[in-house]
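Researcher: I'm preparing a figure for a lab meeting and need a structural model of a single chain. I don't have an experimental structure, so a prediction will have to do for now. The sequence is pasted below. Please return the structure as tokens so I can convert it later.
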Amino acid sequence: QVHLVESGGGLVQTGGSLRLSCAASGRSFSSYAMGWFRQAPGKEREFVAAISWRGSSTYYADSVKGRFTISRDNAKDTVYLQMNSLKPEDTAAYYCGATLSGFTVSVVTSTLMYNYWGQGTQVTVSS
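Model: Understood. Here is the structure written out token by token.
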């Protein structure tokens, strides 16, 4: 069992930055590839970024490529999402997930592939 807790969300103006954190506890964090997803009101949860268990591979949705950076610190059992140049369309609840699927990060873009989820943190970008 893995328990995930997101933090770092908030209200920011267009063009601003935020860094989200996802702290893990329980089974060995370094065994899991990790992903960030987001869900806006009335929409399905969508993939944002993923990182391999070692942190050597990352993958991003086209909508955030070049603006967001996913990273992890296995010594701290934490994964991060640095979000720069934020846009109003980035407004959503952001969730981190952990997957033991074993697939490469370019494949783990579906919520169905994730074993554990956090409770989410809200990001609101004002125009």
